[in-house]
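Exercise 7.
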Amino acid sequence: MSTYKESVDKIKPEFEKAFRFLEAEIAKLRTSRATPALVEDIEVNAFGSKFALKQLGAISSPQSNQIVIQPWDISYIEPIEKAISQSGLGMSAVVDKNIIRLSLPLLTEEYRQVLVRTLNEKAEQTRKTIRHWREDAWNEIQRFQKEKKISEDDKFRGKDELQKVVDDYSEKIKNLIEKKKNELI
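Solution. The predicted structure, written as tokens, is:
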């Protein structure tokens, strides 16, 4: 016999995946502090293959407005420098012997507004994904009730539990977005 709990439990990992994806996307957004997450996933063409920057060297942030990349091999310096200039992040790479230094320009008010807008768009995409999974679970619960696998009371318990999980994730998203917005100030 199927239960509404199975349907709710089945979608929780999907909610978690959507939330983790949002966290990763938000980490890539530049705030007033430089972090390796800003550049670690930039694709670099080296030796005819594409690599994430984090696969080609050590990335650190020794100062709040600077990122330092120390390639594992000096032959990676030129492809890394090219990938950074084409990344659209507005950073210029300065090669200093065997390392690459990136200095972040100060955030302008206009750029902050663009970042907040992007932040809100990414949050809404995640909420949309969660709504999609909620709808799938709710349809399954309703189907169970129509097939007499669960009672009508269980159907409504399922709906309530499903809504509770959705509300929890909505709150997590809201808190994550607020935290990132505060970093932009």
